[in-house]
Amino acid sequence: KQEVTQIPAALSVPEGENLVLNCSFTDSAIYNLQWFRQDPGKGLTSLLLIQSSQREQTSGRLNASLDKSSGRSTLYIAASQPGDSATYLCAVKNYGGSQGNLIFGKGTKLSVKP
Amino acid sequence: EPEVTQTPSHQVTQMGQEVILRCVPISNHLYFYWYRQILGQKVEFLVSFYNNEISEKSEIFDDQFSVERPDGSNFTLKIRSTKLEDSAMYFCASSQTGVALTYNEQFFGPGTRLTVL
Hints:
The structure holds two protein chains of two kinds. Chain A is an all-beta fold.
């Protein structure tokens, strides 16, 4: 059974720092991996999707990498800002099943201090 | 930019009552999903829906739950007889493509917070 783990559970950094969030998964047979941002009491905003054949994806200050064989993904945030404060979730879609549900990690709560 | 919308944002109900949570997926999307997040826990998959039928469901999605696409725009989740443990944030999501394509980005709505008293 696929398990997704995110470390650390919480992270606090000063504004301007570059940071890395980690996501690991136990079953490497995935279709893709998606990173989300969740603000308190709010919905999930899709940040990046990496297909199984890709190694990384970039959007603005965000860069996500995928190493399927080792079951790891990282989300790199450059020059962090207070507005980046949120919980970041990663989710994988496995092979198999019909439409393929997303399996989520518990998230990393990021706080960027001004 | 197109987005998934959900109503209501917050629903309070008494245990044993029926609730219907509503979602309007992105208009050109064909695949629809419900997830839930109990406070402090992971987001969990409930059900996926395509071509007017359930295509996959989790063990959470028992006989108390049902989904429907009553018209061309709405997608609903019904809980027939709510329990205290149904209290959670319920998220609707949609995607343009299905799992057969690796590029299958799911877009989520803002959620409905269900409180069962």
